[in-house]
Design brief:
- With 278 residues, this protein is mainly alpha-helical.
- It is built from 13 helices and 2 strands; from the N terminus they run H-H-H-H-H-H-H-H-E-E-H-H-H-H-H.
- Residues 255-265 and 267-277 have low confidence and may be disordered.
- The longest helix has 29 residues, at 48-76.
- The radius of gyration is 20 Å and the shape is globular.
- Strands 1-2 form a two-stranded antiparallel ribbon.
- Strand 1 (159-161) and strand 2 (165-167) form a beta hairpin.
- It is 65% helix and 2% strand.
- The protein has one domain (2-21, 47-243).
Length: 278
């Protein structure tokens, strides 16, 4: 059964995540130097040498494969077409975003997600267009890693995953859960359409690299330590996504007592410190 295959695939990833988590917890901290210990705890990257090695491997893959493929994609597809494809892929994520909106006790954002899907799937021609944004329904992204954070789960130590890049135990587990929350994965797996799963994964990867093209180039040129800059940007972006641009202290705990309302299109959208994904 496809669920068994999918479960085994993600179980292997979970074992890898757990192994790295254990390794991180076993790493020794500089106990005899208070300042070094404080910096060590702030960075929260206890297996940094291994992470840097994986980062260099990922950079090698990027230069040898991902960047050239994306460069070809950017050459063949004009910017407007690439934007249409990005919109379509984002629209496909609606069920996962909506599920996490509701799990986080955000019915208003869930209403916005629903309206975006209805508008973009019809007027926007199955999601290739994004008229919902021009109508005041701003796009936002949610995932189960953010849901775990809203419900109080700590991020755990920072680590790099081969190919996939920056993460932590909370976000890695969130990716596994999101895989099973996505009805397209269930449908394609049940019908034996592995090509749909792989095709969407590859296209999403190319689209993500395209969205990050200028960001990564500028960051690499301006950074003294590219690895540390990526680590810092990843954490800032994730914290901003988790709090919806608010201070963590000001964000109320999740609840389900509110009405299922659509966010006011005239209201200023949440400030988004980073529109990119790493």
């Amino acid at each position: 059964m496809w669920v068994d295959k999918g479960f085994k695939r993600w179980a292997r990833i979970s074992v890898l995540v757990l192994s790295m988590f254990v390794l991180a917890n076993c790493a020794s901290a500089p106990e005899n130097d208070p300042e070094a210990l404080a910096e060590y705890n702030t960075i929260n990257d206890p297996v940094e040498p291994a992470n840097r090695g994986i980062f260099e491997f990922n950079m090698f893959l990027d230069r040898a494969l991902f960047r050239p493929v994306t460069a070809l994609y950017r050459t063949i597809a004009p910017e407007t077409l690439r934007e249409f494809i990005h919109n379509f892929l984002q629209n496909l994520r609606t069920p996962v975003i909506l599920a996490n909106d509701l799990l986080q006790g955000e019915p208003s954002r869930g209403g916005t997600t629903t309206m975006r899907f209805l508008i973009n799937s019809t007027i926007g021609v199955v999601g290739f267009g994004d008229p919902a944004t021009s109508m005041g329904f701003e796009q936002h992204d949610e995932d189960f890693g953010q849901t775990l954070a809203v419900w109080g789960a700590g991020e755990g130590p920072y680590f790099m995953i081969p190919i996939f890049g920056p993460s932590n135990p909370r976000d890695a587990v969130g990716k596994v859960v999101d895989f099973f929350l996505d009805p397209i994965n269930w449908w394609a797996g049940k019908e034996g359409l592995d090509s749909v799963l792989w095709g969407r994964t590859v296209m999403s990867g190319i689209d993500t690299r395209d969205q990050l093209w200028d960001v990564l180039d500028d960051l690499e040129k301006s950074s003294i330590d590219f690895y540390a800059s990526i680590r810092s940007l990843y954490r800032q972006r994730r914290n901003d996504e988790i709090t919806n641009g608010e201070s963590l202290d000001d964000k109320p705990p999740p609840g389900f007592s509110g009405d299922f309302e659509i966010a006011d299109p005239d209201q200023d959208p949440d400030q988004d410190l980073s529109q990119t994904k790493l």
